[in-house]
Design brief:
By secondary structure, this protein is mainly β. It has one domain. 7% of the residues lie in helices and 50% in strands.
Length: 184
């Protein structure tokens, strides 16, 4: 605030009430093992069963984006962060939804359902442990409430711990429509 209690902003900020939205943010994950149809991961975020998420795996000089549904999730243990905070660590199984085409997926389900020996190993074979999963992340959605808004930005409140100056795709729910913006 400037002297005299007035703000030196280009645009006036307005207080709002009951305006909510959703945004995506990334959280680091550790790939425990991976196969063509899924992966087991560890994360400090609780993942919802049957919900689809985007996983981003750093591969050479690019990012490999895979979509998948959570098929199982358990609280594994807790760990202490560098700042002394103790956080839970969850392990989750993700079944990829965009790595195989529909015919391949149907064929795998047919074979799984009709194989003669139910003790045979899985159709897609072995899961591989990964030597390096640094740079891997999962995109999570979080809710926020708008406290103040102007023509150039808004002040929000959320439970998500977001890094300063990080950018996020955001949706603002207004009456019967949704406005999409990119914020930091």
């Amino acid at each position: 605030m400037a002297k005299g209690g007035s703000e030196k902003r280009k645009y006036k900020r307005y207080e709002v009430d009951s305006v909510h939205g959703r945004m995506l943010y990334s959280s680091d994950i550790n790939i425990l093992n991976i196969s063509m149809d899924g992966a087991a991961i560890a994360t400090t975020q609780r993942l919802a069963l049957d919900r689809e998420y985007s996983l981003k795996l750093k591969f050479e000089n690019s990012i490999l984006t895979l979509r998948g549904k959570v098929v199982w999730s358990v609280l594994s243990h807790s760990k202490t962060l560098k700042n002394g905070e103790v956080v839970p660590v969850y392990r989750a199984g993700i079944r990829f939804t965009n790595t195989l085409n529909e015919a391949a997926t149907q064929l795998i389900r047919y074979i799984e359902k009709n194989k003669a020996n139910p003790l045979e190993q899985r159709i897609l074979g072995v899961r591989f442990k990964v030597t390096e999963s640094k740079g891997s992340a999962i995109d999570l959605a979080c809710e926020y409430q708008i406290k103040k808004i102007s023509l150039s930005g808004m002040l929000i409140e959320t439970n998500a711990l977001l890094p300063e100056d990080s950018q996020h795709d955001m949706e603002i729910a207004l009456d019967n429509s949704v406005v999409t913006v990119r914020g930091r």
